[in-house]
Specification:
4 helices; 143 residues; 6 strands; alpha+beta; globular; two-stranded antiparallel ribbon; single chain; Alpha-Beta Plaits; four-stranded antiparallel sheet
Amino acid sequence: MIELIEHSNRLLILLVFSFLTIAYRDARGQQTTPMVRLAKIIVDSSRLEEYKVALKEEAEKSVQIEPGVLTLYAVSEKANPTHFTILEIYADSAAYLAHLQTPHFIKYKTTTKDMVKSLELVEADPLIPEMLIKSSNTTRKRK
């Protein structure tokens, strides 16, 4: 079972970075280095639905109102629904640090602190930095 989970995580990482990486330019038109990471979270099963609500609220608000938060894409494992992986892409490390100080992120951390059994943050490098992120409604384009 552990081998299957590790294989699934490797496959997720490969797919995510093959299809969902970005390049970003700052206000001066300078190329910046996006900060990319995976957050691997295991949640207490008795608090699963409550955690999903808190995560959804925080991720949606972050992407809506923070220009430096480019993607917070959360998935849970089908075989282990308490295991989450979140692809986090920030314009740069300054955007990430600013994100940590927002009221909605602080609320998320405070609300979920007793729900999260395990948290692993994995720093990552985009495989294809110039690739764009698409959604069914919009496409982010490099400038």
